[in-house]
Amino acid sequence: MKPSLLLLPLAAALLATGCASQQTTTMDSSADNQRLQQLEQENQQLRAQLGNEQPAPASQAPDLLPPNAKPGHCYARVVIPETYKTEMERVMVSAEDTKLTTTPARYETVQERVLVREATTKLITKPAEYRTVSEQVLVRPAYTTWKKGRGPIERIDQATGEIMCLVEVPAEYKTVQRKELVQPERVEEVAIPAEYKTIEVVKQVAPPQTHKQVIPAQYRDVPKQVKVTNADMEWREILCETNTTPDVVRRLQQALKNEGYDPTWVDGVYGSRTRAAVIAYQKDNNLPSGQLTMRTLNELGVKL
């Protein structure tokens, strides 16, 4: 391909600008300079690429001119942004985990008999044991004597002439008490039994238990942007001096302002601030950017 063909896009843009030589200029010179600089940069990039490549067949040659161009219309290569689609992706929010819970031990109060003192023995001295006994003691033995009266054996007192009889007087006794030794003094070993007492104690009736609970992993579906096409450069019809009027620019500025992209002035002049508002609107709405395309006008509701 000849290097002179690299200047065709620039020439086409200049010719499109020249189509409006009889109309009042509505775009300031700074915008024209920026557009020309952009076209020159594109040509320089194409020139560098073609200088390192072999000539390609005509069927594979890049579109250096807009296809199906119409007379009196303006075209420019604009950036076609990347396109994306939203897919749902399942992501893990929290990994599987294990939770341990402990049930405390269970207790109750019970009564328990506890040893206070062990059984033992001790030696004790037991005194002698006595008992009191009663016995008859002879005070006077039995005897016989003569008394007045009559009886089996009798006699007459010679002195008095009285009849005397022989009487037996029984023995006389008296009751006396005395102590009698029953058990002599002795030393004995005495068993002292163990001593207990009942107390209340707290006893464990069920030990503590640990329970293992598996908490499954948690997932959720989140939207994910997946690229469908890459960014590219394409020829698109744009608004230029041949197909615009101050009224169109004024309606464009008002539409941008209504959408929140303030061009500063609504004066019908396509200046640098209006162009900056257009590019910001295009990028935010995923539109071809870099030039004021017809699609941008349609999206803003501006009709020619």
Automatic annotation (TrEMBL):
Keywords assigned = Coiled coil, Signal
Coiled-coil residue windows? 29-56
Superkingdom of this entry's organism?
Bacteria
Q: Which named protein is this?
A: Peptidoglycan binding-like domain-containing protein
Residues spanning the signal sequence: 1-22
The Peptidoglycan binding-like domain is annotated at: 248-300
Supply the source organism for this entry. Answer: Alcanivorax dieselolei (strain DSM 16502 / CGMCC 1.3690 / MCCC 1A00001 / B-5) (Alloalcanivorax dieselolei)
Cross-referenced Pfam families, in alphabetical order? Answer: PG_binding_1
State if Coiled coil is listed as a keyword. yes
